[in-house]
Design goal:
Elements: H1 14-31, E1 36-38, E2 45-47, E3 51-54, E4 63-66, H2 71-99, H3 105-136, E5 143-145, H4 147-168, H5 173-177
Antiparallel strand pairs: 1-2, 1-5, 2-3, 3-4
Helix pairs in contact: 1-2, 1-4, 2-3, 3-4
């Protein structure tokens, strides 16, 4: 990756593109209704980050209750939302950093640090939600934390991994800019 992956003329937009994918995954997690779902028939429970919906039987009407009435619901939503906002800020800063003709490597390292902070907030929200939800909300049947919750964890993992990439990238500044003489492993007889 160091020798060819971030060459200016070829692949310098890989990291901002991955951040953009993380933003899309975060939007899916925030808007998705699949944080918790019933695992078996009859499907009687479905929850998002914002509300919990139940129905009495297979053909009944869904009744929804806002999770913002609970302190832990507000805390989970707020911490995950703060992590998502920081991710969007990092995405905008990465586009600015890679659009400039000369990379500012200290600026890139700062984006990596901000990604770690975003990951901490996202993980806090992702841990608060299932712990408090399973203890304070009455659940019937077998339930599972589902696809939207998985997108939330994927976003948090991407924040951590991309934070490492952004923090370690300045260590290879000379290789990326082409200031290092190539080494050949050929010896003459």
């Amino acid at each position: 990756m160091v020798k060819y992956g971030l060459d200016y003329t070829r692949c310098r937009w890989i990291l901002p593109l991955l951040l953009g994918i993380g933003v899309i995954f975060g939007i899916i997690a925030l808007a998705g209704r699949g944080w918790l779902e019933s695992q078996t028939l009859p499907y009687v429970h479905q929850a998002s980050l914002w509300e919990s919906c139940t129905r009495p039987g297979q053909g009944g009407q869904w009744t929804c209750e806002s999770l913002m009435g609970y302190a832990w619901g507000r805390a989970a939503a707020a911490t995950y939302l703060v992590g998502f906002i920081l991710l969007v800020i990092c995405f905008a800063l990465a586009i600015i950093a890679f659009a400039i003709d000369t990379l500012r490597f200290n600026f890139i390292r700062g984006i990596g640090g901000l990604l770690f902070v975003a990951a901490v907030f996202s993980i806090m929200g992702l841990v608060i939600y299932p712990v408090k939800f399973s203890t304070e909300i009455q659940m019937t049947g077998i339930n599972m934390f589902s696809w939207a919750y998985g997108f939330g964890w994927t976003t948090a993992i991407m924040e951590i991994c991309l934070g490492f990439f952004f923090c370690c990238l300045p260590n290879y500044e000379d290789q990326i800019l082409g200031n290092v003489k190539p080494t050949y492993f050929y010896s003459s007889p």
